[in-house]
Amino acid sequence: MQHLSAPAIAALFRALIYQERSLGNQPQADGTFMFDLPIDIIARACQLNHRTVEQVLKGMIQIELLRASKSSETHGDVISVLNPEEMKSVYGATRDKVDWWPLR
Question: For residue range 48-62, what is the model confidence (pLDDT) as tens digits?
């Protein structure tokens, strides 16, 4: 089920983006969303192994959907979602791959 890893991670980011917009906390002035989110938390939330999450995040960074950096303030991993609208298309890829997808 490797092909569903990216949509699972995208779904997590979409949920976080929705929450942050609803609360009025984000986006940043440049339109990006920043999350202090370690890989192990992403792995647990998406029920994926650590290595799979690293590979998916690496791919998302290469296509400039995300940017990762270390935070000196929190000593954690800061992930910036550079293109929140494009995250929808990654999440939406699930619908095209499975015939049981409930929301068409």
Answer: 889 888 888 888 888
Give, for 25, the enclosing helix (H) or strand (E).
Answer: none
pTM: 0.78
3-state secondary structure 36-103: ECCHHHHHHHHCCCHHHHHHHHHHHHHCCCEEEEECCCCCCEEEEECCHHHHHHHHHHHHHHCCCCCC
Task: Give buried/exposed letters for 17-34 (b at 16+ CB in 10 A, else e).
Answer: beebeeeeebeeeeeebb
Query: Exposed/middle/buried for 57, CB within 10 Å: 0-12, 13-18, 19+?
Result: buried
Sheet holding 77-81, edge to edge: 33-36, 77-81, 66-70
